Amino acid sequence: MDKQRRKELKDAAKQEKVWLGAYKLINKESGKVFIGTSRNLKNQWDRLSMQLNNKSHPNRELQDAWNESGKESFEFEVLEEQLAEEALDAKGTLASLEIKWAESLNAFGDKGYNKRKSYL
């Protein structure tokens, strides 16, 4: 790749907007959901499925369900997004989004993979 083309690609990448926000992963067989957040939602499904395929997701219950049912049994959906550059406190914004959506969707116990104690 020549220098000019490389520069064009770098400039285009700098212009691309970054969205942070909350997402849910739905187990289509059981109906259970996992609520998560990301500083960059663009490729979150790819990152999440790679982590689960590599058996390295920290949520053991979700990992076990993925191992048993496979990728085709799960659906990824963005719940809420915000331009990253507009978030004054990205970490705080993501924490509040995760709490908001986990509580509103009751993503605990029989209905979800999230752990309630992490939201108190």
Commentary on this structure:
The chain has 4 helices and 3 strands; from the N terminus they run H-E-E-H-H-E-H. The mean pLDDT is 89. A 3-stranded antiparallel beta sheet has the order 2-1-3. With 120 residues, it is of the alpha+beta class.
Task: Note the main attributes of this structure.
40% helix, 4 helices, 21% strand, 120 residues, alpha+beta, three-stranded antiparallel β-sheet
- Main sheet overview: 3 strands, antiparallel
Average of the residue pLDDT scores: 89
Please give the count of helices.
Answer: 4
Share in helix: 40-55%
Low confidence ranges: none
Quote the distance from N terminus to C terminus.
52 Å
- Derived from helix and strand composition plus strand pairing, the structural class reads alpha+beta
Q: List the strand order in the largest sheet.
A: 2-1-3
Count of DSSP E strands? 3
General shape: globular
| Radius of gyration, CA atoms, in whole angstroms | 17 Å
Percentage of residues in DSSP E strands: 15-25%
- Secondary-structure element order, as H and E? HEEHHEH
